[in-house]
Amino acid sequence: MAKTARQKLIRILQNAHAGELAAAYAYRGHWKSVRNSDEKTNIKRIEKEEWEHRECVRKWLTELEAEPRKFREAIFWTIGRSLGVLCFVSGWFFPMYFAGRLESQNTQEYEDAASFAKELKMQECFDDMKHMSAKELEHEEYFRKVVAKHRLLPLMVKFFRWS
Known about the structure:
Layout: H1 5-33, H2 37-63, H3 70-86, H4 93-119, H5 123-147, H6 153-160
Helix pairs in contact: 1-2, 1-3, 1-4, 2-5, 4-5
């Protein structure tokens, strides 16, 4: 049985709700671990925007009479907290690289959500998803710029295909 646009939108929003939780906590650990004050400021801003995205996603889940998936939320809470702690031991490059790669995936996720919202004639939801997609792209571009000249980048691109 094929899923409807509504079901697909709900699934993306449920995934995004948990994903934003993990990202926000990972960024919290990340900005606390960096020494460069400009990087700290930028990552703090990105964390704040991830919390805002989570709030917006929650609003649309409520509008669609859906709930976050509790088990996924618990898993992603654990992932986010763990990644935040790992930022203190993994060095500077890896958190920056994987944050950019993750943001790249989020950009597409919100584009897909916007497409389903449009199909459902949910203009305000469409606008919110497009806005969040653009923000995620800004985040991705920030991290891309930060890692652009790192000596490990060519190796990471070879294995993880994000540059």
